[in-house]
Amino acid sequence: MASAAIASSSSSSFIIQQRKDVGLSPFSPNTSFNLSNSKKKVFSKNKIVSVMAPQSQRTPSTTGSVKTGMTMTEKILARASEKPQLRPGENVWVNVDILMTHDVCGPGSIGIFKKEFGQDAKVWDREKLVIIPDHYIFTKDERANRNVDILRDFCNEQNIKYFYDINDLGNFKANPDYKGVCHVALAQEGHCRPGEVLLGTDSHTCTAGAFGQFATGIGNTDAGFVLGTGKLLLKVPPTLRFVMDGEMPDYLLAKDLILQIIGEISVSGATYKSMEFVGSTVESLSMEERMTLCNMVVEAGGKNGVIPADATTYKYLEDKTSLPYEALYSDEKARFLSEYRFDISKLEPLVAKPHSPDNRALARECKDVKIDRVYIGSCTGGKTEDFLAAAKVFLASGKKVKVPTFLVPATQKVWMDVYSLPVPGSGGKTCSQIFEEAGCDTPASPSCGACLGGPKDTYARMNEAQVCVSTTNRNFPGRMGHKDGQIYLASPYTAAASALTGYVTDPREFLQ
């Protein structure tokens, strides 16, 4: 393989290799390139130096049929379209295993379905549709509430099996069916299975790729068509491969890894491409951390993110689903458009500065940025392990927060964990107890909360031009409410550390 250039700079220090599609096995120990002819790319003194290997020479194929190796994404789409072979760029009709929609896009998708298929039409499969109100629910906004009413009427009419309804907006615990944030609920309720195709009317549907399935967001028109047919025409994406090796430092989380990658390839670097994550570091991650990694591939323009299923995946699914599934893996001779290699042991805590997820910086480089608030929540940073991580920082410091710190668990199950699971090394204290001692706001009702902004009475919405450190996934102008707000994306470690100082803070200040 091509040698990697090692850069040691103020921005970060790690190993990266970028290799264009060479048509050879990425696993082959005998693959070599003549780097004397390589095109070297130097970004700046403070950026990473990478080496781009030239395209290899391929000998003509032998007589007879030759099977080309396929990536995991290509294999999943091939099986879903009943094709023996697929290549990037092909358009195929794919059979959908699960379609998810929520209170923002559901009414529009339902309207299109009824317009095109008829007012009395039935959905293609009432057990393959998952409907989850989660975005604009704890609000007095009549239009937002009407959206949930439309979902409820449709699910009753169609006898939808998996409708996670909410009736009592004043007390979420009084709603036995209510779950919370769709992407986390899909996993917890067993709708994510290796080798399947999961589509959702939300760009962060790609989160489910952590389970070794093809998962991507679609628009209302596409969803309306899937509701009636169970099929969708998809273009097969090429695959970018990200190999992450090295022992994960105890001050890093998956959020740091994906911010590193997005900062490296930019918000358009994976446009309509699959992002496949492999390597010893990825294998060491829990399922929730893998979900964080896949969640933000869309912030790089990715069509989907995917991680090979392994023992960790199967263990998580043991009590989640009884349906059969079959995992698929990239062939040894699969063709990847590019390959990037990272030595994670050399990575430092990161943030994405306003107003773009690829505006990467070291947390310690932003230590003079004064903040007004901290938000811990969302499909990206509101899972059980995210709150355990934040509690770990608060516990280690023994101090109180200096800015308002808002906590929004992703789902009912996460909320229960926050109040019941003991934090390691705390002597039996739960996250909620540690948060209370640190002076944080009481954990709120599970939902997408202020991540998207939403109605003005949404809990923790930024209604003023403030500076916020957030565990969410986007920091565009207006994303969390006020158009002049400034959002620094960070891991739960960095968010908690920043809450304790009132400035963007490297969590190593408290964890080491």
What does this structure look like?
This protein is of the alpha/beta class and 512 residues long. It contains 15 helices and 22 strands. Strands 4-5-3-16-13-14-15 form a seven-stranded mixed sheet. α2 (106-117) packs across α5, α11 packs across α13 (431-437) and α11 packs parallel to α14. The longest helix is centred in the first third of the chain and has 17 residues, at 142-158. The two termini are 36 Å apart. The relative contact order is 0.13. Residues 1-16 and 22-64 have low confidence and may be disordered.
* Strand runs, count: 22
Going across the biggest sheet, name each strand in turn: 4-5-3-16-13-14-15
Please give the largest β-sheet.
Answer: 7 strands, mixed
Q: How does the helix and strand content classify structurally?
A: alpha/beta
Uncertain stretches: 1-16, 22-64
Number of alpha- plus pi-helical segments: 15
Overall average residue pLDDT: 90
